[in-house]
Amino acid sequence: MHAIMLKAKLHRAEVTHAVLDYEGSCAIDGEWLDLAGIREYEQIQIYNVDNGERFTTYAIRGENGSRMISVNGAAAHKAKVGDRVIICAYAHFSEAELAGFKPRMLYMGPGNELSHTSNAIPVQVA
C-alpha cells in the first residue's frame, strides 16, 4: 500500500516577484529548496493565504540567500508581490518508508526571514 504525504512545506513565505512574462514556474531561494528537500522542477502546490487561490506549478532554483519567491507565467495572475503563500510538495511513500517518515517544514517570518524549521505540525485544539 502507498500513501501520498506532505513531503515539504514553506509556511507563509512572502511573494517577492510576480512575473507574467516569464516561463511558468516558481523560483524559490536555492538554500530553502535544499533545506526543504524540494528538487528543481518538482511539482509544488501553492496556497495563497491572502486571496485564497490554490494552484499547481513547479519549483525552479532562485539565487541562494535571496529570500526569493517569484511566481511566474500564468501563475502570476494568482499572486502579487507581498502576498503570503504556503508552498507544499507531496510524495508517494510505501508503508515501509512511512515508518520513519517526517516532513521538512520551513516557517517564514517578516521579510522572508527563516523563523524556524520543524518535522511535525502541532495538534490543533478545539
UniProtKB/TrEMBL annotation:
Keyword Lyase: yes
Residues with Pyruvic acid (Ser) modification: S25
Cited CDD domains: Asp_decarbox
GO molecular function, one term: aspartate 1-decarboxylase activity
Active site residues per record: S25, Y58
Binding-site list for substrate: T57, G73, A74, A75
Cofactor section: pyruvate
Domain of life: Bacteria
PANTHER family: ASPARTATE 1-DECARBOXYLASE (PTHR21012)
Protein's name in the database: Aspartate 1-decarboxylase
Protein species of origin: Metapseudomonas boanensis
Classification lineage: Bacteria, Pseudomonadati, Pseudomonadota, Gammaproteobacteria, Pseudomonadales
